[in-house]
């Protein structure tokens, strides 16, 4: 029996050595590990691709690719001038405004000026056909107290007087601009109760977790009390917003709603002469059925 026990231990050691060091050190649940590493700085959806090829920096509550680890400057320049280069701008914050068009334009006119160029009322932008860019100022303070540059796009008209506007701002300017928008529209009441409990993973993801833990009983994750670990949870919020804060506000008098859509809408920039070709080959028009 003693020999059998020694033999079992010896076989166990040989089995553990069979795996390479990278496999032995791999976390049993990568999603849980990645969520744990995003406690302070949120990752973009392209983070892992960038992390393998770029020097990463932590800015504005995000983890961003700063400079490539290889000498790829010529390749990037070639792509910009002859082909197509894609950049991930998802760290830019999106502020969504909903309400009657005349009410939106009336108050938005207070934070921009025709002397600087385009305004939110520009016909080509108001139709939803083009994206506009302008500088924002504190309400009725132009040419002083500039808040910063933004880009915006209106959702195309659907025959109703209610419109939808997306304003894209740099994360460093987000809090100041959001505060000014809430002030001019008098949006102080939360539109809905903020979600304080992070959303659980889908049933399929939970099943995958169960399979992994059943295969690796030796490294089964347990909490302090020795009980089975809780399911993996997805992160809510972004680098510029506390998950416990409200993310949507409404004005009682006008019904205008402001929502913080940061990290809910991905944003990519395509540069180069083949950008349109790439888009037309990638995106396929959906067949819309009207009843």
From TrEMBL:
A Gene Ontology biological process term: tRNA 5'-leader removal
Classification via InterPro entries: Pop1 (IPR039182), Pop1_N (IPR009723)
First and last residue of the signal peptide: none
Domain of life: Eukaryota
All residue ranges annotated as the Pop1 N-terminal domain in the record: 5-99
Pfam families: POP1_N
One GO cellular component, as annotated: nucleolar ribonuclease P complex
PANTHER family: RIBONUCLEASES P/MRP PROTEIN SUBUNIT POP1, RIBONUCLEASES P_MRP PROTEIN SUBUNIT POP1
Protein name (database record): POP1 protein
């Amino acid at each position: 029996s003693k020999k059998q026990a020694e033999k079992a231990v010896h076989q166990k050691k040989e089995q553990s050595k069979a795996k390479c060091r990278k496999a032995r050190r791999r976390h049993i649940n990568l999603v849980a590990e990645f969520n744990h590493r995003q406690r302070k700085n949120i990752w973009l959806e392209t983070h892992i691709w960038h992390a393998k090829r770029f020097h990463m920096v932590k800015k504005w509550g995000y983890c961003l690719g700063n400079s490539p680890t290889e000498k790829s400057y010529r390749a990037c320049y070639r792509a910009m001038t002859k082909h197509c280069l894609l950049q991930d701008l998802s760290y830019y914050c999106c502020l969504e405004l909903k309400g009657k068009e005349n009410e939106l334009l009336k108050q938005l006119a207070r934070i921009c000026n025709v002397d600087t160029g385009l305004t939110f009322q520009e016909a080509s932008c108001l139709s939803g056909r083009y994206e506009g860019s302008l500088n924002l100022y504190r309400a009725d303070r132009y040419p002083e107290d500039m808040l910063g540059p933004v880009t915006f796009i209106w959702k195309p008209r659907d025959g109703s007087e209610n419109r939808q506007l997306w304003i894209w701002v740099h994360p460093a300017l987000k809090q100041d601009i959001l505060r000014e928008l809430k002030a001019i529209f008098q949006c102080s009441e939360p539109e809905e109760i903020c979600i304080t409990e992070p959303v659980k993973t889908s049933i399929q993801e939970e099943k995958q977790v169960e399979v992994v833990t059943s295969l690796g009983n030796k490294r089964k994750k347990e909490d302090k009390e020795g009980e089975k670990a809780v399911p993996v949870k997805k992160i809510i919020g972004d680098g510029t917003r506390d998950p416990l804060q409200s993310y949507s506000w409404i004005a009682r008098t006008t019904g205008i709603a402001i929502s913080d859509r940061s990290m809910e809408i991905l944003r990519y920039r395509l540069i180069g002469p083949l950008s349109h070709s790439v888009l037309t080959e990638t995106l396929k028009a959906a067949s819309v059925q009207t009843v």
